[in-house]
Amino acid sequence: MLPTQTECPLQYADIELWPDGRTLQHGVPVALSPTERALLAAFILQAGRALSRRQLLAQVWGVAGGLRTRTVDIHVNHLRRKLGPGLRLVTVFGVGYRLEREG
If you average pLDDT over residues 17-46, what whole number do you get? Predict the structure, then answer.
């Protein structure tokens, strides 16, 4: 029997986000909060593209408009510390952040 779409993980490089809540990198579990998972999913869905703080606030927190907050920056820093080798979250000056492969 073939897996259904809901059984397949969201993948980029060596990281997998499974619908059941598991996150694996190099096949090893990574402990992420629900917010960190949602943030990583937003980056994976737009891999290689810079996402602005405004876009991330809308996609992850459901906040629209020009709210000024450090929430995105704080959660991006937490996620950076948890990502292992092979992936990095790059600051794009004047824009926001981008997920890319290392090397």
Answer: 93
